[in-house]
Amino acid sequence: MMLYAATSNAGKLRELLMAREGSGLTDLNVEVLPNLRDIAPPAEDGATYEENAATKAVYYSGFTTGLVLAEDSGLEVEALGGAPGVRSARYAGVGATEAANNALILESLAGQANRRARFVSVAALARRGRLIQSVRGEVSGLILTELRGDRGFGYDPLFFYEPFACSFGELTPERKFEVSHRGNALRALFREWSGGLDLGH
Ligand code: ITT
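Above: the input entities. Below: the structure tokens describing the complete assembly.
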């Protein structure tokens, strides 16, 4: 069976491929949705990750007869009242670079003692315009006072994971995936899938 990933984020795709490897679903193939680049993206203006993930999955599933997986994620910083949250990709403005987003987090937390934060991921599965399933994964950590590591993507170099005593930016993709929000969401999704999810047709 083919699963089409509706994401333009290479870091997310890499983690999805890793999830498939560990899923035990041997007849499952994962590929980026054909012509994704030529499809105008839907507005991601929902108030929750669930809404945005479902919007993306349902929208892109209108361009194929196959199964489509989309994901919405973000960083929630306690001292910032949960920001940037669903606005994580555009925290420093629409089209902002990862560097600009990271710089704004550091600036917003200057002098702040409470560095608690979490990453949240919601993965949604759809077929032919119908939402099939949506799952959430989370991971808790601390926001560093400077970037550490050049692996991963997005806010990874700022996210200190206490059990490993290093930032997500210092981890191999495999090690990050063992504990990450996306790893947790995708493992839950594939567990349900293995348990006999009704995938429609
Ligand atoms: P798609 O919508 O095409 O999947 P995107 O990058 O626009 O890709 P989102 O709208 O879900 O994805 O934005 C989530 C942002 O949150 C992402 O751009 C990163 O800045 C951040 N983020 C999410 N997961 C992350 C992770 O594992 N590590 C670091 N930053 C992450």
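Note for the figure: The chain has one domain: 2-194.
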